[in-house]
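Teaching assistant's notes for section 4

Start the section by putting this record on the projector. Ask students to predict, before seeing the second block, whether Thiosulfate sulfurtransferase GlpE will look compact or extended. Collect guesses on the board.
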Amino acid sequence: MEQFEKLAPSEAYQHWIDGTAILVDVRDPQSFRAGHASGAYHLTNETLSTFLEQTDYEQTIMVMCYHGHSSQGAAQYLINIGFESVYSINGGFEAWLREYPQAVTAL
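Reveal the predicted structure now:
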């Protein structure tokens, strides 16, 4: 994969259920604390190096933001540094919350 691809929330949810992809959330800390997809890794500038050390570059990554726009830049960045399979979730957290409220956790 030379460029990230977009993923529908339903496809992302299926990967999440099956455990076949890592879900990362790139939103700000306050938004993440208020609610995020259960089990999502909060990927920030501060957590990036740990994520890179702990994650297999062959593992599928799904990137979530607010509405599906800023996740595209983050997804492309992950592709550019060597991850093989990266997706941006269309509609972001807002779509996830609307369609799968049972799969949301707040801190």
